[in-house]
Amino acid sequence: MESRITDADLAIIGGGVGGVAAALAALRHGLRVVLTEEGDRIGGQFTSQGVPPDEHRWIEQFGCTASYRRYRDAVRDHYRTWYPLTAAAKNDPHLNPGLGRVGALCHEPRVSGAVLRALVDPYLSSGRLRILLGARPVAAQTSGDRVSGVTVRRADGGLVHLTAPYYLDATELGDLLPLAGVEHVTGFESRHDTGEPSAPDVAQPANMQAFSWVFAVDHREGEDHVIDRPARYDHWRAYRPDYWPGSQIGLTAPDPRTREPLTRTFTPNLTSGPVLADQSQDPGDRELWEFRRAVAREQYEPGFVTSDVTLVNWPMIDYVDGPIIGVSEQDKERHLAGARELSESMLYWLQTEAPRPDGGRGWPGLRLRPDVMDTPDGFAAAPYIRESRRIRAEYTVVEQDVSLAVRGEAGAAPYDDTVGIGMYRIDLHPSTGGDNYIDVPSCPFQIPLGALLPVRVRNLLPAGKNIGTTHITNGCYRLHPVEWNIGEAAASLVAYCLKETVEPHDVRRKDVHLRSFQSALKADGVELAWPEIKGY
């Protein structure tokens, strides 16, 4: 069965962090939007991938858009309204539901799903937003330098043909770019091409960051929840990348910042008290139970929660055997299955072999939590993706623009065409090309409009990790507040162009339009510059 949608002002392909932010921005500006999502829910990393926000140290004060802050506030309000928090937790203006150390808002993926759906629900009721779940892009029609249509295939096999003046690629892997013939790059650019200090001498297009399959567990002491031994457990139990200090499955892994071997601890239901969630001071991964904890017993009235819940997204489950971009469908499925097997093997090892403080081995009481992950088995609905195809852009952000070692006291390179800001270390996980961590201090940076503009195509814009960054600078532009800002800026640009009858590229080239667009962003609560602060 085939159908057509022809009355949208904007078609957003991909319902992850950037896609949702883009939809909300476009809808605020009165546009009619169709949003497609390959999975069964919107939210991407926040929901289907099981990753609470990774944020910078100033997030409670500044450094994100007003709409992103509204999302963060709504998560906290959801807990305050519906959960029996202690008085101290309920009154904490900076409530961190899980007391996780990776960031200031560690919470359940299911809650993010509820909050994001609540944010879009009014527009579903009004009819100005249509969401197509289980819809994967399979084709794009083009005419010269313009996209004239996009076709998505629904889970039932039916095709839906979308026609709109503008299209956003907000997919996790930049899947719309090759379909529409948009010039793009993958993997590692060469030092010859970018001048980046951390780049290799020769480009490595198949060398991409690891992806991971996250899962949620609690712990029931005295109970047995050991999963079936994974079929390839022996393979993964012995697996060791060249740069790893031992078997990848274990508690010892490279320290991302020093690359020296570091043995973490793992202590289920550790009582923490207040935790420091500040990546500039502490990466947070020394005690793995606390690292990405999403439910903390200490935050609730006594007896309500009998065990914490932690989200396992650790170096030990980073899959580096091969990429899922630029390979055959068969190889992609093989690598996806391999990542899932690696995570299952890590769980089995934790349940049966992990060292305990009492000298024993294994935590058989570790129990998968499907309810927290909102999946049938407690594993995330989709893998956690760190790297995408990236457009060849009018301007490409390079390491020299943001590296603290290069820029020093001068701070990140200023962009006259800024459409937002962000901050994170240049955080590259081990890669499919055999690289160890590349973890470089960075400066608080701006998002240049030029990085959102393809070199040729006029009416398709990136709305996530697929902007004009390099493999290296993707490491700091890929984080959640930045991806949200990118999606919001892209959709706001479309709204501006439709209103002013101007094309995106001309907004950047004509000063009168650039200043007017930047003023509109600021009126919407998009911060375009940082106060005077230093990176880390």
Automatic annotation (TrEMBL):
Keyword list, A-Z: Oxidoreductase
A GO MF label: oxidoreductase activity
SUPFAM superfamilies: FAD/NAD(P)-binding domain
Enzyme Commission code: 1.-.-.-
One Pfam family from the record: FAD_oxidored
Keyword Nucleotide-binding applies: no
UniProt-listed Gene3D superfamilies: FAD/NAD(P)-binding domain
UniProt name for this protein: FAD-dependent oxidoreductase
Highest classification ranks of the organism: Bacteria, Bacillati, Actinomycetota, Actinomycetes, Streptosporangiales
